[in-house]
Design brief:
Elements: H1 3-29, H2 34-45, E1 50-53, H3 60-70, E2 75-79, H4 86-90, E3 91-96, E4 101-106, E5 113-117, H5 124-127, H6 131-136, E6 138-141, E7 144-147, E8 153-158, H7 171-175, E9 179-182, H8 188-199, H9 206-209, H10 218-229, H11 235-247, E10 254-256, H12 260-276, H13 284-295, E11 300-301, H14 303-307, H15 312-322
Parallel strand pairs: 1-8, 1-9, 2-5, 5-8
Antiparallel strand pairs: 3-4, 6-7, 10-11
Length: about 325
Protein backbone atom coordinates (compact mmCIF):
# COMPACT_ATOMS: atom_id res chain seq x y z
CA UNK A 1 0.00 0.00 0.00
CA UNK A 2 1.45 3.43 -0.95
CA UNK A 3 1.61 6.58 1.16
CA UNK A 4 -1.55 8.00 -0.42
CA UNK A 5 -3.53 4.85 0.35
CA UNK A 6 -2.21 4.90 3.93
CA UNK A 7 -3.38 8.49 4.34
CA UNK A 8 -6.82 7.69 2.91
CA UNK A 9 -7.21 4.68 5.21
CA UNK A 10 -6.10 6.71 8.24
CA UNK A 11 -8.62 9.44 7.42
CA UNK A 12 -11.37 6.88 6.98
CA UNK A 13 -10.52 5.19 10.29
CA UNK A 14 -10.64 8.55 12.08
CA UNK A 15 -13.96 9.38 10.42
CA UNK A 16 -15.41 6.00 11.39
CA UNK A 17 -14.45 6.74 15.00
CA UNK A 18 -16.35 10.05 14.90
CA UNK A 19 -19.44 8.33 13.44
CA UNK A 20 -19.29 5.66 16.15
CA UNK A 21 -19.05 8.36 18.82
CA UNK A 22 -22.24 9.99 17.56
CA UNK A 23 -23.98 6.63 17.30
CA UNK A 24 -23.04 5.63 20.86
CA UNK A 25 -24.13 9.03 22.19
CA UNK A 26 -27.56 8.76 20.57
CA UNK A 27 -27.99 5.12 21.64
CA UNK A 28 -27.28 6.03 25.27
CA UNK A 29 -30.13 8.56 25.24
CA UNK A 30 -32.74 7.24 22.80
CA UNK A 31 -33.13 3.75 24.26
CA UNK A 32 -34.52 0.94 22.13
CA UNK A 33 -34.63 2.80 18.82
CA UNK A 34 -31.40 1.69 17.12
CA UNK A 35 -32.91 1.45 13.64
CA UNK A 36 -34.34 4.97 13.96
CA UNK A 37 -30.98 6.30 15.20
CA UNK A 38 -29.12 4.76 12.25
CA UNK A 39 -31.58 6.20 9.74
CA UNK A 40 -31.36 9.72 11.20
CA UNK A 41 -27.57 9.51 11.37
CA UNK A 42 -27.43 8.21 7.79
CA UNK A 43 -29.58 11.11 6.59
CA UNK A 44 -27.28 13.59 8.32
CA UNK A 45 -24.17 12.04 6.73
CA UNK A 46 -25.85 12.03 3.31
CA UNK A 47 -27.03 15.63 3.63
CA UNK A 48 -30.71 14.65 3.67
CA UNK A 49 -33.81 15.39 5.72
CA UNK A 50 -36.06 13.09 7.73
CA UNK A 51 -39.81 12.87 8.28
CA UNK A 52 -40.36 11.26 11.69
CA UNK A 53 -43.70 9.59 12.26
CA UNK A 54 -44.69 8.26 15.65
CA UNK A 55 -47.09 8.68 18.53
CA UNK A 56 -46.23 11.24 21.26
CA UNK A 57 -43.67 10.22 23.85
CA UNK A 58 -41.49 7.99 21.67
CA UNK A 59 -38.43 10.25 21.84
CA UNK A 60 -38.60 12.27 18.62
CA UNK A 61 -37.63 15.59 20.21
CA UNK A 62 -35.02 13.96 22.44
CA UNK A 63 -33.41 12.37 19.39
CA UNK A 64 -33.02 15.70 17.60
CA UNK A 65 -31.72 17.49 20.71
CA UNK A 66 -29.26 14.67 21.40
CA UNK A 67 -27.98 14.82 17.81
CA UNK A 68 -27.39 18.58 18.11
CA UNK A 69 -25.61 18.03 21.43
CA UNK A 70 -23.36 15.41 19.84
CA UNK A 71 -21.76 17.87 17.41
CA UNK A 72 -22.30 21.20 19.24
CA UNK A 73 -24.80 22.21 16.58
CA UNK A 74 -27.42 24.92 16.79
CA UNK A 75 -30.92 23.59 17.30
CA UNK A 76 -34.26 25.31 16.70
CA UNK A 77 -37.78 24.00 17.06
CA UNK A 78 -40.93 25.23 15.34
CA UNK A 79 -44.33 24.16 16.60
CA UNK A 80 -46.42 24.10 13.43
CA UNK A 81 -49.97 25.40 13.92
CA UNK A 82 -52.79 26.36 11.52
CA UNK A 83 -52.07 30.08 11.99
CA UNK A 84 -48.29 29.83 11.43
CA UNK A 85 -47.12 32.14 8.63
CA UNK A 86 -44.24 31.50 6.19
CA UNK A 87 -42.34 34.45 7.67
CA UNK A 88 -42.50 32.73 11.07
CA UNK A 89 -40.36 30.01 9.52
CA UNK A 90 -37.96 31.86 7.21
CA UNK A 91 -37.84 35.32 8.79
CA UNK A 92 -38.49 38.72 7.22
CA UNK A 93 -37.18 42.23 6.75
CA UNK A 94 -38.44 44.88 9.15
CA UNK A 95 -38.02 48.63 9.14
CA UNK A 96 -35.77 50.06 11.85
CA UNK A 97 -37.11 53.56 12.32
CA UNK A 98 -34.11 54.62 14.41
CA UNK A 99 -31.60 53.59 11.75
CA UNK A 100 -34.05 54.39 8.93
CA UNK A 101 -33.19 51.13 7.18
CA UNK A 102 -34.56 47.65 6.66
CA UNK A 103 -32.98 44.89 8.73
CA UNK A 104 -33.17 41.13 8.39
CA UNK A 105 -34.88 39.28 11.21
CA UNK A 106 -33.72 35.70 10.74
CA UNK A 107 -36.27 32.95 11.22
CA UNK A 108 -35.67 29.64 12.99
CA UNK A 109 -34.49 27.97 9.73
CA UNK A 110 -31.12 29.63 10.26
CA UNK A 111 -29.74 26.78 12.31
CA UNK A 112 -28.00 23.41 11.93
CA UNK A 113 -30.88 21.18 13.02
CA UNK A 114 -34.48 22.31 12.60
CA UNK A 115 -37.23 20.35 14.31
CA UNK A 116 -40.49 21.03 12.47
CA UNK A 117 -42.90 19.66 15.06
CA UNK A 118 -46.27 18.42 13.75
CA UNK A 119 -45.53 19.81 10.29
CA UNK A 120 -48.90 18.62 8.96
CA UNK A 121 -50.74 21.05 11.24
CA UNK A 122 -49.70 24.05 9.14
CA UNK A 123 -51.33 25.00 5.82
CA UNK A 124 -49.61 24.28 2.51
CA UNK A 125 -48.18 27.80 2.05
CA UNK A 126 -46.32 27.54 5.36
CA UNK A 127 -45.12 24.01 4.66
CA UNK A 128 -43.89 25.27 1.29
CA UNK A 129 -41.69 27.84 3.04
CA UNK A 130 -39.34 24.95 3.80
CA UNK A 131 -39.10 23.75 0.19
CA UNK A 132 -36.34 26.07 -1.02
CA UNK A 133 -34.15 25.77 2.05
CA UNK A 134 -34.43 21.96 2.10
CA UNK A 135 -33.27 21.73 -1.51
CA UNK A 136 -30.91 24.68 -1.93
CA UNK A 137 -29.78 25.42 1.66
CA UNK A 138 -30.64 29.08 1.35
CA UNK A 139 -33.63 31.39 1.85
CA UNK A 140 -34.79 34.17 -0.47
CA UNK A 141 -36.43 37.14 1.26
CA UNK A 142 -37.46 40.26 -0.66
CA UNK A 143 -35.13 39.34 -3.50
CA UNK A 144 -32.11 38.73 -1.25
CA UNK A 145 -30.69 35.21 -0.86
CA UNK A 146 -29.28 34.14 2.49
CA UNK A 147 -27.44 30.87 3.12
CA UNK A 148 -28.27 28.78 6.19
CA UNK A 149 -25.47 27.29 8.33
CA UNK A 150 -23.97 23.98 7.24
CA UNK A 151 -24.61 21.24 7.99
CA UNK A 152 -28.34 21.88 7.77
CA UNK A 153 -31.00 19.27 8.37
CA UNK A 154 -34.78 19.36 8.77
CA UNK A 155 -36.38 16.72 10.97
CA UNK A 156 -40.15 17.02 10.73
CA UNK A 157 -42.58 15.11 12.92
CA UNK A 158 -46.17 14.10 12.38
CA UNK A 159 -48.62 12.12 14.49
CA UNK A 160 -49.98 9.10 12.54
CA UNK A 161 -53.14 8.84 14.65
CA UNK A 162 -54.52 12.31 15.29
CA UNK A 163 -55.55 13.65 11.88
CA UNK A 164 -58.17 16.21 12.89
CA UNK A 165 -57.04 19.72 11.99
CA UNK A 166 -54.13 18.53 9.85
CA UNK A 167 -53.14 19.22 6.25
CA UNK A 168 -51.60 16.52 4.04
CA UNK A 169 -48.05 17.29 2.96
CA UNK A 170 -47.79 18.15 -0.76
CA UNK A 171 -46.02 15.57 -2.95
CA UNK A 172 -43.22 18.06 -3.70
CA UNK A 173 -42.67 18.53 0.04
CA UNK A 174 -42.64 14.79 0.76
CA UNK A 175 -40.13 14.18 -2.01
CA UNK A 176 -37.64 16.53 -0.32
CA UNK A 177 -37.32 14.16 2.64
CA UNK A 178 -34.67 11.49 2.16
CA UNK A 179 -36.28 9.16 4.71
CA UNK A 180 -39.65 8.68 6.30
CA UNK A 181 -38.75 7.02 9.58
CA UNK A 182 -41.43 5.34 11.67
CA UNK A 183 -40.82 5.38 15.43
CA UNK A 184 -42.71 2.57 17.13
CA UNK A 185 -43.16 1.78 20.80
CA UNK A 186 -39.99 0.31 22.37
CA UNK A 187 -39.75 -3.33 23.39
CA UNK A 188 -40.74 -4.08 26.99
CA UNK A 189 -37.16 -4.46 28.30
CA UNK A 190 -36.08 -1.28 26.51
CA UNK A 191 -39.03 0.62 27.95
CA UNK A 192 -38.09 -0.56 31.46
CA UNK A 193 -34.53 0.70 30.88
CA UNK A 194 -35.89 3.99 29.55
CA UNK A 195 -38.20 4.63 32.51
CA UNK A 196 -35.45 3.66 34.98
CA UNK A 197 -32.92 5.98 33.30
CA UNK A 198 -35.25 8.99 33.08
CA UNK A 199 -36.64 8.76 36.60
CA UNK A 200 -33.12 8.43 38.02
CA UNK A 201 -32.17 11.89 36.69
CA UNK A 202 -32.86 15.28 38.19
CA UNK A 203 -35.96 16.88 36.64
CA UNK A 204 -36.29 13.81 34.40
CA UNK A 205 -33.72 15.39 32.07
CA UNK A 206 -31.85 12.52 30.44
CA UNK A 207 -30.07 14.85 28.02
CA UNK A 208 -28.35 16.98 30.68
CA UNK A 209 -27.44 13.94 32.76
CA UNK A 210 -25.68 12.29 29.79
CA UNK A 211 -23.92 15.24 28.17
CA UNK A 212 -20.66 14.10 26.51
CA UNK A 213 -17.38 15.43 27.89
CA UNK A 214 -16.29 16.40 24.41
CA UNK A 215 -18.48 16.78 21.34
CA UNK A 216 -17.78 16.98 17.63
CA UNK A 217 -18.13 20.27 15.76
CA UNK A 218 -20.25 21.30 12.75
CA UNK A 219 -16.99 21.32 10.75
CA UNK A 220 -16.49 17.65 11.71
CA UNK A 221 -19.92 16.81 10.30
CA UNK A 222 -19.17 18.68 7.06
CA UNK A 223 -15.99 16.61 6.62
CA UNK A 224 -17.85 13.39 7.39
CA UNK A 225 -20.43 14.31 4.72
CA UNK A 226 -17.61 14.81 2.20
CA UNK A 227 -16.11 11.42 3.05
CA UNK A 228 -19.52 9.74 2.87
CA UNK A 229 -19.99 11.09 -0.67
CA UNK A 230 -16.75 9.35 -1.69
CA UNK A 231 -17.92 5.88 -0.64
CA UNK A 232 -17.50 3.60 -3.68
CA UNK A 233 -20.72 2.56 -5.42
CA UNK A 234 -20.45 -0.11 -8.10
CA UNK A 235 -22.42 0.35 -11.33
CA UNK A 236 -24.28 -2.91 -10.63
CA UNK A 237 -25.49 -1.55 -7.29
CA UNK A 238 -26.72 1.66 -8.93
CA UNK A 239 -28.46 -0.45 -11.59
CA UNK A 240 -30.14 -2.44 -8.80
CA UNK A 241 -31.35 0.72 -7.07
CA UNK A 242 -32.80 2.15 -10.29
CA UNK A 243 -34.53 -1.14 -11.17
CA UNK A 244 -36.15 -1.22 -7.73
CA UNK A 245 -37.46 2.32 -8.11
CA UNK A 246 -38.70 1.63 -11.64
CA UNK A 247 -40.59 -1.43 -10.38
CA UNK A 248 -42.80 0.80 -8.21
CA UNK A 249 -44.21 2.42 -11.36
CA UNK A 250 -45.62 -0.83 -12.70
CA UNK A 251 -46.69 -2.76 -9.60
CA UNK A 252 -50.44 -3.41 -9.35
CA UNK A 253 -50.42 -2.58 -5.64
CA UNK A 254 -49.37 1.03 -6.17
CA UNK A 255 -51.33 3.75 -7.91
CA UNK A 256 -48.35 6.16 -7.97
CA UNK A 257 -44.72 5.11 -8.28
CA UNK A 258 -41.56 6.93 -7.26
CA UNK A 259 -39.63 9.47 -9.34
CA UNK A 260 -35.90 9.71 -10.13
CA UNK A 261 -35.13 11.53 -6.88
CA UNK A 262 -35.95 8.25 -5.09
CA UNK A 263 -33.06 6.49 -6.83
CA UNK A 264 -30.66 9.25 -5.83
CA UNK A 265 -31.85 9.08 -2.22
CA UNK A 266 -31.57 5.28 -2.28
CA UNK A 267 -27.92 5.34 -3.38
CA UNK A 268 -26.93 8.23 -1.09
CA UNK A 269 -28.70 6.64 1.87
CA UNK A 270 -27.02 3.30 1.18
CA UNK A 271 -23.63 5.03 1.06
CA UNK A 272 -24.27 6.52 4.49
CA UNK A 273 -25.35 3.14 5.89
CA UNK A 274 -22.18 1.58 4.52
CA UNK A 275 -20.17 4.39 6.15
CA UNK A 276 -21.89 3.80 9.50
CA UNK A 277 -21.09 0.11 9.13
CA UNK A 278 -17.39 0.86 8.66
CA UNK A 279 -17.29 -0.03 4.96
CA UNK A 280 -15.74 1.91 2.07
CA UNK A 281 -18.11 0.50 -0.55
CA UNK A 282 -21.87 -0.03 -0.96
CA UNK A 283 -23.43 -3.50 -1.10
CA UNK A 284 -26.91 -4.56 -2.23
CA UNK A 285 -27.73 -5.16 1.44
CA UNK A 286 -27.15 -1.45 2.13
CA UNK A 287 -29.73 -0.65 -0.56
CA UNK A 288 -32.15 -3.08 1.09
CA UNK A 289 -31.57 -1.49 4.51
CA UNK A 290 -32.73 1.96 3.37
CA UNK A 291 -35.39 0.74 0.89
CA UNK A 292 -38.44 1.25 3.12
CA UNK A 293 -37.54 4.63 4.70
CA UNK A 294 -36.57 6.04 1.30
CA UNK A 295 -39.67 4.79 -0.52
CA UNK A 296 -42.68 4.65 1.81
CA UNK A 297 -43.54 8.37 1.43
CA UNK A 298 -42.86 8.53 -2.33
CA UNK A 299 -45.46 6.01 -3.49
CA UNK A 300 -49.22 5.75 -3.10
CA UNK A 301 -51.09 2.56 -2.28
CA UNK A 302 -53.73 1.42 -4.78
CA UNK A 303 -57.33 1.75 -3.57
CA UNK A 304 -57.99 -1.98 -3.80
CA UNK A 305 -54.96 -2.65 -1.61
CA UNK A 306 -56.26 -0.22 1.00
CA UNK A 307 -59.63 -1.99 0.95
CA UNK A 308 -57.87 -5.30 1.55
CA UNK A 309 -56.04 -3.85 4.54
CA UNK A 310 -52.61 -4.02 2.90
CA UNK A 311 -49.88 -1.57 3.87
CA UNK A 312 -47.44 0.40 1.74
CA UNK A 313 -44.52 -1.29 3.46
CA UNK A 314 -45.91 -4.74 2.60
CA UNK A 315 -46.14 -3.87 -1.11
CA UNK A 316 -42.64 -2.37 -1.09
CA UNK A 317 -41.27 -5.49 0.58
CA UNK A 318 -42.89 -7.58 -2.16
CA UNK A 319 -41.13 -5.49 -4.80
CA UNK A 320 -37.85 -5.95 -2.95
CA UNK A 321 -38.35 -9.72 -2.91
CA UNK A 322 -39.23 -9.91 -6.61
CA UNK A 323 -36.32 -7.74 -7.84
CA UNK A 324 -33.11 -9.67 -8.35
CA UNK A 325 -30.09 -8.26 -6.54
CA UNK A 326 -26.55 -8.43 -7.92
CA UNK A 327 -24.25 -10.97 -6.32
CA UNK A 328 -21.93 -9.45 -3.76
Amino acid sequence: MNTHDDAVQAAFTQAAGAVNFLRRHLTSLVIGQQQVIDQVLAALLAGGHVLLEGVPGTGKTLLVRALAQGFSGEFNRIQFTPDLMPSDVTGSYWYNAKEQSFELRRGPVFTHLLLADEINRAPAKTQAALLQVMQEYNVTLDGHTHAVPRPFMVLATQNPIEQEGTYPLPEAQLDRFMFKTVIDYPELNDEIRLVSAVTATENNDLLSANAPNQALSPQHIARLQQMCARITTDAKVIDYAVRLVAATRHHHGLSVGAGPRAGIALVNGARAMAFIGGKTFVTPDDIKTVWLPVMRHRVRLAVEMEMEGQSTDAVLNEILTLTEAPRQ
